[in-house]
Amino acid sequence: MAYKYSVKENWGKNANNDSFIRHEDRAMFHIEGFPGNVWLTDDNIYAERWIGRVAGVEKTKAQAQTIVTDIINDAKDAWDNNNVSGESSDEKITRLGSKPTDITLP
Amino acid sequence: MAKYKAIHGFTVQNRTSDPVPTGGSWSTGTALNDGRSALKGAGIYTAAIGAGGTKGPNTFPVTTEEWNGSTWTEVADLNAGRKFAASTTNGTTEAFLYFGGENNGGSGVSNKNESWNGTAWTEVAEFNTARKSMGGAGTSTAGLMCGGTSDPPVRDNTETWNGASWTEVSELNTARNSHNSAGTLTSTLACGGTPPAGLKITEEWNGASWTEVGDLNLGRIAHGMCGANAEAMLMFGGEKSGVNTDTEQFNGTTWSKVGDLLTACYDQGSAGTTSNALSFAGAPGTKTAVEEWAVSTITDSIVNDGQIFYRSDTGDMKVSLTDYGTGAWATGGALNNGRSIIAGAGIQTATTVAGGDNPAAAPAIKNFTEQYNGTSWSEVAEINDPRKTWGSIGTSTAMLIAGGQNASGVTDNVESWNNTSWSEIADLNTAKTQNYSVGTTTAALSIGGDTLPNTAVAETEIWNGTAWTEVNNQNTAKFARAGVGTVTAALAAGGQPVVGIVESWDGTSWSEIADLTVAKQGLGSSGDTTSAIVFGGNNPTPGRLATTEFWNGTAWAEVGDLSQARMFSAGSGGSSVSALCSGGESTASPDTQAFTEEWTVPESVTNLTITD
After folding, report:
1. Are residues B79 and B203 in the same domain?
2. By CA distance, what is B243's nearest residue in A?
3. Count of pairs with CB atoms under 8 A, one residue in A, one in B
4. Up-side HSE of residue B349: CA atoms within 13 Å toward CB?
5. Staple B325 to which of B407, B463, B590, B602, CB 3.0 to 4.6 Å?
6. d(CA B404, CA B413)
7. Is residue B611 domain-resident?
8. What's the per-residue H, E or C state across B558-575?
9. Distance, CA of B493 to CA of B233 (rounded, Å)
10. What is the number of domains present in chain B?
11. Domain containing B82: what range?
């Protein structure tokens, strides 16, 4: 399966009530969000139109993977460095959630 | 009435035609030969013409097709392919103008004007201001165009055609493009368009000037439109927060909703009147599909959902039923404060969320309350005891939050929201967090929970409007479950430690029913015990989930994914066909989300034949 990768900040729904990802987009192509505002889509005309509509910036898979990995690595560092004296491992997970794990883009 | 029918039954009616939706109904017609969108048309129900449009970037067909009431036939081509042109909407298959639009290859906008004489296209006098996405009206000897865009600016210009030349006349009150219009040289209606996208404003042209009349119920762009004059108009489809099927009819004063298109569509061609009309081709994609509109008459019977009837002319037993399409998530308005483990209650267009957790922004545990109006979130009065809390009790204007984790640990504190402020009410019997609560402000159920650290409990507590009472435990001690239902009928799904187990509450005790397809915890939910969805969540492998599972009362099945995997989002909506997923924790924990997603399953009422 061929995918396209693009980067664009998700605006949610704007003042004109227009969704960043519309219901009909979901019917026309697969879309999946990753850290760093990276969006994976099918490689078809509808996804191409969506990238154009939201003014997304297309990336190669390697470029997109680098963006995601950098975000995860920063999150891992933040998690490692966020400690409370005397806190057990379970307590840290309760407070912060599990340590971020690597993501490999499809 | 439903109760009366359930008790006494009803007579199976004998019909020779199907009932129709109030106002009229669309049915499938014969497809065009050449699929495309952004084309223009004219004519009547049994004799129409469609020309031009687009088949994709820089592919603007010159094809013209004629409809004779039974088939579409390709006839002579336009001289120049353009998309987003306009036409004399009240033209015929013998006399029709196609003017303006975006030039083939995207090389600017056009002021070309082509005239169809029933056999061939001829270029005639150009108009004054080149543009695209404008409205048209009239005939090949008495025409009109209004608005549009010259890429930029957006236009308010109106020009009229006397059969030989164009003259600039009075401007629209609201400049717009991607609207639509129809009518005659002396009686035209223009509505919808942008900016901003989805204008509701309707203007009526009386031959000399434009006057604002009744707004559309649903503002939109790129819709179909047809009608004899400004006193009787039909408009359908278009885009507003997604492609829609909505059809509205104008009676000279106001717009009223009538029967929906069978399939959502925009940038389609249109022809006909309020009595009989055609919607042909269009987007998304490059459709060839045609739908035919027929108005309901005084002798028509109107669709009555659930009614069984006998078609004596065909020998079929039929039933009027609501059909559900394929559900999908679209992005909704972003929260002002991204957070996870939040409580939410309400419907997709009116939800309140409270509390939450965001370790990246101290203090991590939040007291925020936000309200959603279907477009954006507003901060309202904060909760008294900041906490991360979980569940969905009540509505946007009257909700409870029960328990949770505050800065000191687990809490038994319960607060009540009256749409103005939060007040503390009677405590839970046991302090706990990530207990999922469902119900109303006078009858609620608290399911399981965590007494910390990671100590799942099986407790169930019932709220009667005054106090909480411990009742029978779940079979499995879990926290971070999803829940739907009421104090007399509820479901609890998944949970931590991670399982796919689902339990059903009958008002007295819990019993296990069919498992989720994927074990998970921290999932959102919406619906009831007979029809529900759960979404997102977490499983140690692969981690955060985007999946949505649908419960039909018997089994779970995967349906459309969220666009962003997440856990601990607030679930609200109250049904399996319309729900809201707010916030949560995304892939890179503790990456809390401000984003929301809106789940919608399209529905329509149709008459189905009962078969074996």
Report:
1. yes
2. A24
3. 132
4. 3
5. B602
6. 8
7. no
8. EECCCCCCCECCEEECCC
9. 50
10. 3
11. 20-300
Q: Which residue of B has its CA nearest to A102?
A: B588
pLDDT for position B325? 80
| Whether residue B50 sits in one domain with residue B11 | no
| Within a domain: B69 | yes
Which residue type does B224 have? Answer: G
Structural domain harbouring A82: 3-96
Nearest chain A alpha carbon to B198? A16
Q: Residue A16 has which token pair?
A: 């004109």
Of B51, B126, B47, give the one whose Cα is nearest residue B86.
B51
Give the pLDDT mean for A19-32.
85
How much is the pLDDT for B1?
A: 47
Structure confidence at residue B360 (pLDDT): 82
Whether residue B153 has a cis bond before it, omega within 30° of 0: yes
Which residues of chain A have a CB within 8 Å of the CB of B334?
10-13
Q: Are B449 and B434 within 8 A, CB to CB?
A: yes
**Contact check, Cβ <8 Å, B331/A31:** no
Walk along chain B (612 residues) in steps of 10 and give the mean pLDDT of each run.
68 82 82 94 94 87 94 95 94 95 86 96 96 96 95 93 96 95 95 89 94 90 94 92 86 86 92 94 91 82 81 90 85 94 95 93 93 94 96 96 96 97 97 96 97 93 98 96 96 95 97 96 96 95 92 95 94 93 79 90 80 80
Q: Are residues B333 and B380 in the same domain?
A: yes
Distance of alpha carbon B113 from alpha carbon B125, whole angstroms: 6
| A11, A14, A16, A23: best to mutate for the B interface, most B CBs within 10 A | A23
Look at residue A68 and tell me if it is in a domain.
yes
Judge if B148 and B280 occupy the same domain: yes
- Using CB atoms, which residue from A12, A17, A32 is nearest to B596? A12
Residue A26 is assigned to a structural domain of this protein? yes
E runs forming strands in B286-425: 287-295, 308-311, 316-324, 328-332, 343-347, 350-354, 369-372, 377-380, 392-394, 399-406, 409-417, 422-425
| Best mutation target, A9, A14, A18, to test chain B (most B CBs within 10 A) | A18
Inter-chain touch A13–B329, beta carbons under 8 Å = no
Per-residue pLDDT tens for A50-103?
A: 898 888 999 999 999 999 999 999 988 988 998 989 988 888 877 777 788 888
Task: Give the nearest chain B residue to A38 (CA atoms).
Answer: B564
Q: In a 3-state reduction of DSSP, which class is residue B375?
A: coil
* Nearest CB partner across the interface for B546, out of A17, A28, A32: A32
Instruction: Specify the CATH number for the domain of residue B112.
Output: 2.120.10.80
Examine residue B28 and state whether it is found in any structural domain, yes or no. yes
Number of domains in chain A: 1
Task: Tell me, yes or no, whether B260 and B310 share the same domain.
Answer: no
**This prediction's pTM:** 0.67
Please give, rounded to a whole number of angstroms, the shortest distance from the CA of A32 to a CA of chain B: 5
Cβ(B474)–Cβ(B534) below 8 Å: no
Q: What is the pLDDT of residue B377?
A: 97
Q: Do A28 and B284 touch (CB under 8 A)?
A: yes
Q: Give the distance from residue B359's alpha carbon to the nearest chain A alpha carbon, in angstroms.
A: 6
Same domain, B289 and B338: no
A19/B332 Cβ within 8 A: yes
From the list A20, A88, A103, the residue facing B331 with the nearest CB is A20
Let me know if residue A102 belongs to a domain: no
Residues B316 and B394 in one domain: no
In a domain, B612, yes or no: no
What pLDDT is recorded for position A19? 86
Same domain, B313 and B280: no
What's the confidence (pLDDT) of residue B588? 56
Smallest Cα distance from B508 to chain A, Å: 32
Q: Do A35 and B194 touch (CB under 8 A)?
A: no
Residue B406's beta-bridge partner residues?
B409
Among A13, A14, A54, the residue to mutate for chain B (most B Cβ within 10 A): A13
pLDDT of residue B115: 97
The Cα–Cα gap between B325 and B568 comes to 28
In a domain, residue A73? The reply is yes
Task: Report pLDDT for B478.
Answer: 95
